[in-house]
Amino acid sequence: MTTATLGLFAGPTLRRVRKAEVVAQPFVKADGLEICLACWKDWITGDQDTDLGVRTMRGLAGDSVTGPDIYEAQQDADQRVGAATDAMINSLDRIHVWAIYRSCSIASVWRFPNADFSTVAAEARGELTAKLKKNVCTATLF
Predict the structure, then answer these.
(1) Confidence check: pLDDT of 84 > 80
(2) Could you tell me if 142 and 133 are in contact, meaning their C-beta atoms sit under 8 angstroms apart?
């Protein structure tokens, strides 16, 4: 009786759900360009000198028996994607580089007064997507 007074059990409220009532949400694959730009923003704003030799000394501490650290592996993969994206961004024209920086909120001022930012940003994203699809490191994201 104590459960009834606390409101934890209020009778048979559970029912079987029919298969027709269940709506499965379709899988939506993440945009590869957005993933690359997110990794690039983390890479460009982060400290580039993070490998201080701890991973090379891990075998002496006995951590290699437990297997690889999944967090470190994902962080390394994100760093490689960020570096590859940076290289592809730097290979674009200067106006397109500035459009990518501005659209990712890294640059605060649009320095090309004779060009329309939205048009140039769309062109820059298109060129960057084409380059990232051809890159070995980032092609699997598309």
Answers:
(1) yes
(2) yes
